[in-house]
Fold this protein.
Amino acid sequence: MQTKKITLLSGDGIGPEVSLEAEKLLKVIEGQFNYKFEITKKDFGGIAIDKYGIPLPEDTLNTCKNSDAVLLAAIGGPKYDNLPREKRPETGLLGLRAGLSAFANLRPVMVFDPLLDSSTIKKDVLASTDLIVVRELTGGLYFGNPKGIEVKHGEKVGFNTMVYSESEIKRIAKVAFEIARKRKKKVTSIDKANVLDVSQLWRETVTQVSKDYKDVNLEHMLVDNAAMQLIKNPKQFDVILAENLFGDILSDEGAMLTGSIGMLPSASMGDGAHPAIYEPVHGSAPDIAGKNLANPIAMLLSAAMMFKYSFSDEKVYNLILNSVKNILSQGYRTKDIHQESRDGVSPTKLIGTREMGDLICKELAVSKSKV
Ligand code: IPM
Ligand code: MG
């Protein structure tokens, strides 16, 4: 029996609803496999601001540090939009990433066949797209100094700094090459080297790292072109390596290839000294919170990634993935991926958050019994 300590940060908006579905899934896995999960729930984001005035209480960070993995749903909401930056939920998220030294953010973009019609992109362009964005997560513009808003020459001036050291670039590049080695052996490194000095260093350093990975094909692409290529021909990509902000933007674009941002999971990890964070890419969607409308799949796939990356258990990872695929092929959809009926007959079956979670859990239990 393997005991795993999981810190669950449900957060705000739809966070608690999709977290409940992840808890259900973990219960099923506990019942079917040799696991015992010790789940500790902690306040993080808006809910922590409401209770303690800060988004990332020390107790929350310490509990995360002392666990085997962190499952995080979503944070933020309009209520917190006007708070000073240091008190905002997003600042808590950056603090959590930095506090756990989670410099590598993996965002797999898998296009599920049954969802080909849910995307705004043409079917034949999308079919069999399978890529992963490796986003640097603790550097760049998000963390660089100097930053701020100051009065200069009688007017306000705002500034942030995109800064990377060679060592920061090397460690994230290595993650991308290692992943590519186990996939289609291609890394596309994103930069803006025609304009930015920091990008020039990024390009040089990634090229240098690639010398240790002769079996992997390296290509450099300017970020504006990458945004275009992702829509034009997403199949050309295998591993997309990008700095923090470029990765943030391109991964949302990637999400839309899957049909909905409600489908995209992520893992954020460091060098192993601290636990990794598993988190859907979607936000807290306050407009649909508490209505049983949210898509729990990104959260369930994030839990799946936890088995793969933190518990080295590809079997459970694949079982969750296949359960999701099977339920989608049976036509079940939450609202974000549902196809509206033409001529009164809808090609898909509209269900809610809880029902989607239940179906995937049931499917998992059935598939397990067939293994
Ligand atoms: C993401 C989000 C966050 C980011 C926000 C909420 C701070 O957009 O995880 O992609 O920009 O990293
Ligand atoms: Mg983002």
